[in-house]
Amino acid sequence: MDDLIKENEKSIFLPVFLSLIAGFAVGAVVGLLYAPKTGKEMRQDIKDKSDELIEKGKKSYEVISDKTKDIIDKSKEKISELKDKGEELIEIGKNKINETKNIITDKVNKSKEEAKEINDYLQS
Q1: Which residue from 59, 67, 63, 56 is spatially nearest to 21, judged by alpha carbons?
Q2: Which of 2, 5, 110, 119 is exposed most, by the fewest CB atoms within 10 A?
Q3: For residues 49 and 28, is the Cβ–Cβ distance under 8 A?
Q4: Per-residue DSSP letter, 91
Q5: pTM higher than 0.70
Q6: Dihedral sign, Cα of residue 46, residue 51, residue 54, residue 56
Q7: What is the pLDDT of residues 38-47, one digit of tens each?
Q8: Distance of CA 36 to the CA centre of its chain
Q9: Residue 37 φ/ψ, nearest 5 degrees
């Protein structure tokens, strides 16, 4: 249950974080547009802020990508573990069936022998 809560918190964090970054970007652009600077300075500031935001976006993508890879790797490990456990349980089931079959076969053979002995006794 705690894992589910943590996952929900993580899934909420990313959209809020990206919205916050977008809000900062819009605020920065609006601030730059109303600042008393020359056109050349303004364009350079916008370019610098754009480059900065692009770098932040790339870093965020790398973090998300790394987390996705981690989730995929963990999922593959769990699937492999479950497959191994399933195969182990199937093998245990087969062994139990064979043991039961052998017990039943032995009892049937003993019953046949006893029936033959009784039949031989009654016929003599």
Answers
A1: 56
A2: 2
A3: yes
A4: H
A5: no
A6: negative
A7: 777 777 877 8
A8: 52
A9: -130, 165
